[in-house]
Design a protein that fits this description.
alpha/beta; binds 1,3-dihydroxyacetonephosphate
């Protein structure tokens, strides 16, 4: 069942975080639905602009609608990841997406507010939730590349003004993570104080709580990187991500959506590199595809345990039926 991210936030806020997983093809989609069904977790499917041009947007919609039929117990939101104004409007008008992210964080503060407000007005009129970004994460994600020296944490005072003026449903805040596989040099750390300060500023102003979204949340497991490199990869072994044991403490402070993409790509890379290293005479993509779908499902289920969303499906179902 497709619901809005706001429907899911109502149940999750300050209790657990929802996994927001990027998909590009049928293998990822199948593994994602299987993993969330197996762990009884609500979830958010993320579709980026890159995914929409890799697999045609209609192809992705058909795959997801079919997965929904195959896994009838699933409850999830369909979310545009890092949209611009045009792609947000395309998704809102499609009637398929239940949530969009407008990312105007590279614009001036005022322009970010203006653009976000326009998207919020159009999305809310169509019953679609909106995530907006303030502050800049470092790292590389598709066509977005931010130098670490230009990355900056979200300012809580600005965050309050931004939320008040835009009416966004969730705020993607820069709290120390970055996109991709190379997140931290030396000690890794999330800026929990920024999450607390934003939540306090919003509460002091008498506003309803605004869920915080953490982008760049992959953990980049060392053993995964080592296995990829042992099978012919050349990833920098200093690759490093977010400590999985920080997901739940962050969730208790108000981080309600946690974005994970890179870790899933690492699973794909490891499975395929090892398969073809060990079976160099093979050229059928289905055997490694089958292994990937199973491993990706297990990976998703294990992340949902860390996020606290595992086992929360019934609670979400009850909240949805109470709201009708
Ligand atoms: P990772 O690169 O850490 O997986 O982050 C993904 C993300 O934030 C998608 O918006």
């Amino acid at each position: 069942m497709i619901v809005t991210t706001s429907d899911l936030y109502k149940v999750a806020y300050k209790k657990f975080a929802l996994g927001a997983y990027n998909i590009n093809n049928l293998e990822q989609t199948n593994g994602l639905f299987a993993g969330c069904t197996q762990s009884k977790a609500p979830f958010i499917i993320q579709i980026s602009k890159g995914a929409r041009s890799y697999a045609h947007k209609k192809m992705l919609e058909a795959i997801i609608r079919t997965a929904e039929e195959i896994y009838p117990d699933s409850i999830f939101a369909v979310h545009l990841d890092h949209g611009d104004e045009a792609s947000c409007y395309d998704c809102i008008d499609s009637g398929f997406y239940s949530s969009v992210m407008i990312d105007a964080s590279h614009e001036s503060f005022e322009e970010n507010i203006n653009i976000t407000k326009r998207v919020v007005d159009r999305a809310h009129a169509a019953g679609v939730s909106v995530e907006a970004e303030l502050g800049q994460l470092g790292g590389v994600e598709e066509d977005i590349k931010v130098d670490e020296k230009n990355a900056c944490l979200t300012n809580p005072v600005e965050a309050l003004e931004f939320i008040q003026k835009t009416g966004c449903d969730a705020l993607a805040a820069a709290i120390g993570t970055s996109h991709g596989a190379y997140k931290f040099k030396g000690q890794q750390s999330l800026h929990f104080e920024v999450i607390e300060q934003i939540a306090k500023a919003v509460a002091d102003a008498g506003l309803p709580p605004t869920p915080i979204v953490m982008h760049g949340s992959s953990s980049v497991p060392k053993e995964e990187v080592a296995r990829i490199n042992a099978a012919g990869g050349k990833l920098d072994p200093s690759a490093c991500g977010v400590n999985l044991d920080e997901y739940l403490p962050a969730a208790k402070l108000g981080v309600t959506k946690i974005n994970i993409d890179t870790d899933g790509r690492l699973v794909w890379t490891r499975v395929h590199r090892e398969f073809f290293r060990d079976k160099p005479d093979q050229f059928d993509f289905r055997p490694p595809g089958k292994i990937f779908m199973k491993e990706y499902a297990d990976f998703i289920a294990s992340r949902n345990e860390k996020l606290g969303s595992a086992g929360k499906l019934d609670e979400v179902r009850e909240s949805l039926s109470a709201a009708v």
